[in-house]
Amino acid sequence: MILNHMVELQTPHLDAVFHALSDPTRRAMLHRLTIGEHSVSDLATPFRMSLAGASKHIKVLESAGLVRRRIEGRTHLCQLEAARLAEAQQWLSTYEKFWSARLDDLEAILREEDASIAGKPATPPLSNKVGE
Amino acid sequence: MILNHMVELQTPHLDAVFHALSDPTRRAMLHRLTIGEHSVSDLATPFRMSLAGASKHIKVLESAGLVRRRIEGRTHLCQLEAARLAEAQQWLSTYEKFWSARLDDLEAILREEDASIAGKPATPPLSNKVGE
DNA sequence: AAAACATTTAACCGAATGGTTGACCATTTT
DNA sequence: AAAATGGTCAACCATTCGGTTAAATGTTTT
């Protein structure tokens, strides 16, 4: 309903959003913003990077529509703006059936392996588990 | 369970995955692969681009783990490999509450507007709807 | 064996990316 | 008024990106 109305077919944003998300610094900044507003230098401190560098990252996030900036005196407060993330997730959701299909396959395989092991009591139990 | 086991904490992939998704050509290729395997030149044809160019895009998808290649004679068959998309979606899911929160806000606002309109029968009904 | 086909590789190009430093502009503090 | 603070802007740099063309590699067809 509301989601379809807002999101569908506006894929131009996706370029910018996915690009913004492709950098670990920016993802970390977004994560940081989940616990509330932060100033630019606040966001910058965790990273070994000049303030100007961090500022650039924030601008990338901003122009991807993932962050909103509110200027208060000399400090710029940044706020998470998650709507565009919803667009990204919606794009990804198209592919859900494909990975769930493969997970189903995987589960079937595991079940089969288990059955096979159960059916071969002669097989000596290994000290190491398979998945390691 | 299985998802957590496979996905959690391996964010290094995310750089590559999100970067791969940031290009519309590559997203279109992925979309194309949802209807089955395709050869490289097959994937390339829809785009105004040299084969070598398309080949590069496919390699980006491949090294992001989104496409698997199976060589059969002289043709390379590409197949969608969606598991890494699941990782991306899982990363995004952390932020779901934020956009749903905002959507709730929006809905609340809309409800309030409706109520406001309902409460002002003197307001002349407009010929154009708001959302246009 | 030669020709056609499917694809990659290599070399190149201009533009964008991620980073730096240094100068600049407001605002707040002293 | 001066100094300190919070931030941007501009210029620069090396690297990556998205694209090209031309040559090379391997397979299939003739």
Give the oligomeric state. Answer: homodimer
Compute the average pLDDT of chain A. Answer: 81
Please name the two chains that share the biggest interface, counting residues whose Cβ lies under 8 Å from a Cβ on the partner chain. Answer: A-B, 36 and 37 residues
Q: CATH first level of the largest domain in chain A: which class? A: Mainly Alpha
What strand line-up does the widest sheet of chain A have?
Answer: 1-3-2
- What integer value in Å does the Rg of chain A equal? 23 Å
Helix content of chain A: 55-70%
Largest sheet of chain A: 3 strands, antiparallel
Number of strands of chain A: 3
Number of domains of chain A: 2
At the third CATH level, what is the topology name of the largest domain in chain A? Arc Repressor Mutant, subunit A
Map the helices and strands.
Two copies of one chain form a homodimer.
Chain A: H1 2-7, H2 12-21, H3 24-33, E1 38-39, H4 40-44, H5 51-63, E2 67-72, E3 75-80, H6 83-93, H7 96-119
Antiparallel strand pairs in A: 1-3, 2-3
Helix pairs in contact in A: 2-5, 2-6, 3-5
Chain A binds a DNA duplex (30 and 30 nucleotides) through residues 19, 23, 25, 39-41, 49-53, 55-57, 59-60, 73-76.
